[in-house]
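Ticket #280: bound-state structure for S-adenosylmethionine.
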Amino acid sequence: MPHTNRKKKNAGAMPLNAENKKTVVHTKRKEVLDEEGWVHVVDTPRTTRRSTISKAALHSGDFEINGVQYVNRTLEEMRVELAYWRKAWEIDEACAGLKTALEKLGEQKIGKVVVLGLGSLQNARREGRRASYTQLVALEIVMAVLGARVSTVFQDPQFTDTDKLLLKELGYEIVEDPEAFQHIVESSLVYAIHCYADVYKEVSEQKTPAVFIGTDVENFGRFNLSETAEVTAKALEEMVKGYESVDFPQIRHDFSDTKIYWRKKLEEVKPEVKPEEVKP
Ligand SMILES: C[S@@+](CC[C@H](N)C(=O)[O-])C[C@H]1O[C@@H](n2cnc3c(N)ncnc32)[C@H](O)[C@@H]1O
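RESOLUTION: The complex was predicted; output attached.
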């Protein structure tokens, strides 16, 4: 994965070993090995000790937009990363688990896929990028299992121009906030992993989609205590009433607390009868 200031351990150019570690420390730029095996080249004064380099420094990016840090990537580099994470996902047991989970949904006639809050594939946080790439390739499986390729819109205010180029190249449409919400209709599949309360609130105010993949509604209410979150939790609970659900298979934390909800087929929905209405 070529990049100006991050190198994979043993990538060839500057392998870290006991001998050359010392040399590196004497330069003004310092190499720091993170827990995932990535070598970060960090500008640091000679007096800065290794132990004082903060996590923030490790996650500082090449540029910033609206307070969000990003790393430089060419479109070609992003294609390579996408291929890497697709391969990693396809051999993970979560991928097989997802296919099995999706079988439960039976035949679904999805008219439109609406993807909210994927996150930028140029996010400066490597775990953030990894989650977004993994969520993107998992979506490919969802779409493959649920049927033919349908029109898909993505919305995330944090997308960079290169994110949009890559997504367009994959055949997706990118819309600006808040347009995507209008695309949520009864035949839609909404894919919104780890989104904020206001995004889910908007979803709950649209027509109830055929499939909703997002935060576990029960946990949403339990762990998000802001006023918006409480209102959202109630609205989401209402939305998924009469839905079936299954946990989204886990890989790292990329789908933590995520569930797949789908509307029961009309013939499976028994009309609720209040006890007093039951005549002997
Ligand atoms: C917590 S991040 C989740 C990113 C990624 N899905 C993940 O699991 O790491 C929430 C994302 O929602 C996006 N977001 C915020 N407002 C949004 C909106 N109105 N529509 C779509 N996405 C939105 C943010 O830009 C951010 O990328």
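RESOLUTION NOTES: The pocket of S-adenosylmethionine is lined by residues 116-119, 128, 131-132, 135, 155-158, 177, 193-196, 199 (CB under 6 Å).
TICKET STATUS: resolved
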